[in-house]
Design brief:
5 helices; about 25% helix; elongated
Length: about 270
Amino acid sequence: HAKLLGKNNMIVPFDDAGQQSLEFLTTKNDCSMFALASNNKKRPNNLSIGRTFDRKILDIAELGILRYKSLADSAGCPKKRIGSKPMMLFVGDRWHLNPEYRRLQNLLIDFHRGDPVDKIVMSGLDHIMVFTTADEPNAAEGSKPIIHQRVYYCKLKKNPNGGRTPVPFLNPSGPDMDFYVRRTEFATRDIWNIAIKQPGANKKKKVKNFSTNMFGETIGRLHLEKQEIEKMGGKKGKALKLAEKIEKEEQGAQLESELGKEQGELQAEFK
């Protein structure tokens, strides 16, 4: 969810007074992420994005926009569904080697990921955001590299080579931007460790030998030693005792009759 504030506020994000104004607005509107657009002679086409922790500014990055292509400029192109999750791809060595760009990558992921979910349907993965860092061929020494943001609509189609796994086809859908990093102010290592720490109550303990079926019923599995059921003596009712007694008497009478027949046959043979 996002809130658009249309009032023109004179806020300088990297000043103490400006950060206090941002902290007030984010607390008032219950927003942990913010984006501030500004334009002046010293820093034209300026975009500041950041996040807060414990109602204080945690990270903030100032970006200079060089090129922007809005959704309206991509008329006729397929657009993502509302509430869908973006796939994000970061191309370039700076995202992994440079600590500043590594923190910027984390900020961009946190800014675009939306609400956290446990499961994602494949049909919900309908667009991908690509961030590419590139150096200009005739750029001056010490200049900041340009970051190219491109958004593509991902349409799943049947695999022409066969198989059940669909093949994604990408179409440019916007919005697209080219920008570079002007200034950054990231949290210190101590504050960062406190911010990313999760409470123990939120950590789910893994329960062994328990599973849930398609009906939502919990099924447990018990591991027992091998039991000799034939030798186990359980509690027997009166009816079972009486039935066993009658069965034993019948078996005894049958044996006696068979023995009597055998003795009669033997006596008849030796007469």
